[in-house]
Amino acid sequence: VQLQASGGGLVQAGGSLNLTCAASGRTFSVRSMSWHRQAPGKQRELVALFSDDGSTHYGDPVEGRASGSRDNGKNTVYLRIDRLTPEDTAVYYCNAVEAGKPLRHYWGQGTQVTVSS
Cα separation of 70 and 49, whole Å? Predict the structure, then answer.
C-alpha cells in the first residue's frame, strides 16, 4: 500500500487546513485510514481515524474543529481543521492499516503544516 498526502503548508492562525491522503496498491485489504501529527519534541498523536465501518474518530486536540470523510471508491480520506492555532504546527502523516496477522501499518511521507500567529 502506498500513501500520497497533499495539502498543508503555511497557514495563518484562525484559518483552515485541508489535507488529502490517497492510497494505492493493495487497497482492497485496507481497513482503517488515519491522520496523525508530530510536533518537534513531542510524540506522534492521532488527529483523525476513518474506520472501514464508516465511523470517524477525532483526536482530542482537534475535537470540535475537525471534519473529514472517507471515499472508499477512491481510497482517499479528506480532513479539514478549522480555527487553527500555532499549536497545530506539526508534520502531518497519513496512515493505513492493512488486514492480516499481524496487522500491517503504512505511513505516508508526511506533510509540514505551519500555523503563523
Answer: 10
User: pLDDT (tens digit, 9 = 90+) per residue, 50-69?
Assistant: 999 999 999 999 999 999 99
User: Would you say 23 and 30 are in contact if contact means Cβ atoms under 8 Å apart?
Assistant: yes
Alpha helices (H) in 22-106, listed in sequence order: none
Assess contact for 92 and 35: CB atoms under 8 A. yes
* Four-CA torsion 106, 97, 36, 18, nearest 10 degrees: 90
Cβ within 8 Å of residue 115, ≥6 positions away: 11, 12, 13, 15, 84, 85, 86, 87, 88, 89
- Residue 108 CA to residue 11 CA, distance in Å, equals 21
